[in-house]
Write a structure and sequence with these properties.
This protein is an alpha/beta fold. The protein has 2 domains: 191 residues, Glycogen Phosphorylase B (Rossmann fold, 3-Layer(aba) Sandwich); 167 residues, Glycogen Phosphorylase B (Rossmann fold, 3-Layer(aba) Sandwich). Helices cover 42% and strands 18% of the residues. The strands form 3 sheets. The protein has a 6-stranded parallel sheet, sandwiched between helices. A hairpin with a 2-residue loop joins strand 3 and strand 4. Helix 4 runs antiparallel to helix 5.
């Protein structure tokens, strides 16, 4: 039983659960799987063996903090599931756990620390105006008081959960790093893939995948860094996939940027393969690695991540690069590695070796051990 965003959403939460469901269908065929999400109407339907519950949510319920949570609590009161795997919220305190039922809370990050991190960028007036966000986020992901187990996707998230809710936890916290599908994301011949995607064979390509806007995952940092790289290498291009053009046009209006609003999920492995560098410049990330980082590593990209994204599996100069200046110094650091063929190959080799330890199969097995045992 999973609660998350719409199955059409291609962000981290939905992809995480789709990967988990894929593993369950291949290895636990006796389990019935349901997916609950908010949408435009109330309906129940089956697709590829999964039962979907779409709960109608109007604008008022979306705006009101407790509106959707009351809706969820009512739904679970009327419908029984043996295991509820939730990302949490106050609905769990409006819902009385049923006899024989398990509630598993999965933390992909903590909203409180995410907001607190971004508050560093605010001036005094903004901090005062947005301070209620911190109070709201304290309860936004609060685990159910009778949660059986809690899954955290990194050691950092585990520490943060303990700091926020430690005194209330009665269950064991497990760290299960997010796995990657090594059948889809793997090394392929770069020249062949670039021809297939109509990309220049002689260019140096960087890659960014994610949303945009003020809470962007470090796109502003990547653009600043890319400007410096472009000054040193006119053959450099940055592939930008995913962000809303209206929110990011002021950032990506650069000669070296190749913008794509959407790429089919099945084609994403090819863009990792075609790229030389993958950038993860977030100011806050829960996963370590995040899903896109693990996909890039498995595909043979040179990973460059910000220090404050805290990708715990990355060691600077060994299986990736860690930067924090986002300017001339870091641009030279990246280009020096790209020019040093032996060093680059060693880093990528170590990167692939690291990510194989958290394959989809290994991750799925660990997650199911928490969910079912």
């Amino acid at each position: 039983m999973t609660i998350t965003k719409s199955p059409k959403f291609l962000g981290g939460y939905s992809l995480y659960h789709k990967n988990l469901i894929r593993y369950i269908k291949e290895n636990h065929q006796n389990l019935d799987i349901s997916w609950v999400y908010f949408g435009d109407k109330n309906r129940t339907y089956f697709k590829e063996g999964i039962k979907y519950f779409e709960l109608k949510s109007n604008k008022l319920q979306s705006f009101m903090f407790l509106g959707r949570f009351i809706l969820l609590a009512k739904f679970f009161t009327k419908n029984y599931f043996d295991v509820i795997n939730t990302i949490g919220g106050p609905w769990t305190f409006l819902y009385k756990k049923k006899k024989g039922q398990k509630i598993i809370h999965t933390f992909h990050g903590t909203t409180y620390y995410f907001n607190k991190n971004h508050f560093k960028r605010f001036n005094l007036l903004q901090k005062i105006l947005f301070s209620p966000l911190l109070l709201i986020s304290l309860v936004q992901e609060r685990p159910h008081k009778e949660a059986d187990k809690i899954i955290c996707v990194s050691e950092k998230v585990k520490r943060q959960v303990k700091n926020l809710y430690g005194s209330e936890l009665k269950s064991k916290i497990s760290v299960v790093r997010t796995g990657v599908n090594l059948k889809n994301f793997k090394l392929r011949d770069k020249k062949t893939i670039r021809k297939k995607l109509n990309l220049d064979l002689d260019k140096t390509y960087g890659l960014y995948v994610g949303g945009g806007g003020y809470w962007t995952k470090g796109l502003d940092r990547i653009i600043n860094l890319s400007k410096e790289i472009y000054k040193l290498n006119k053959n450099y291009r940055l592939l930008v996939i995913g962000p809303d053009l209206k929110k990011t046009k002021h950032l990506i209006n650069e000669k070296f940027v190749i913008y794509m609003k959407e790429v089919e999920r099945k084609k994403m492995p090819l863009y990792y393969n075609a790229s030389d560098v993958f950038f993860c410049m977030s100011r806050y990330e829960g996963g370590a690695p995040t899903l896109v980082v693990s996909e890039a590593m498995a595909s043979g990209c040179l990973l460059v991540c910000s220090k404050d994204s805290e990708q715990e599996i990355i060691k600077d100069g060994k299986n990736g690069l860690i930067v924090e200046e986002f300017g001339k110094i870091d641009s030279k650091k990246i280009l020096d590695v790209l020019k040093d063929k032996k060093k680059k190959e060693n880093i990528i080799k170590n990167s692939i070796k690291t990510i194989k330890e958290i394959s989809l199969e290994k991750w799925g097995e660990k997650t199911m051990n928490v969910l079912l045992k």
